[in-house]
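[step 3/7] fold_predict: job queued, chain A
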Amino acid sequence: MPNMNPTDRMRSRSVDNYVRLIREHLEAMQRDVHGLEYAPWKSEVDNLWKRTFEQISHMSEAPQKSALEVVREPWTTYITHYGML
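[step 4/7] structure written:
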């Protein structure tokens, strides 16, 4: 986005990085649903989501909309499969 201010740009990069980490964690959780590592992975993913949405909430409108598009698919997958566990 060409007109993004430096703070929004930094937050956008943070969101991208968090989503990358979340995807890695979700893959690990899928491989180890009943294992000892599942609970710590889920806790870490929950924290990553919290930090992701905190960054998004502080963005201006246009970057916020773009960031929400970035998180839409992994968030939908996460909440569908792991939100209530």
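[step 5/7] annotate
The CA atoms of residues 73 and 79 lie 10 Å apart.
Residues 6-82 form one domain.
exit 0
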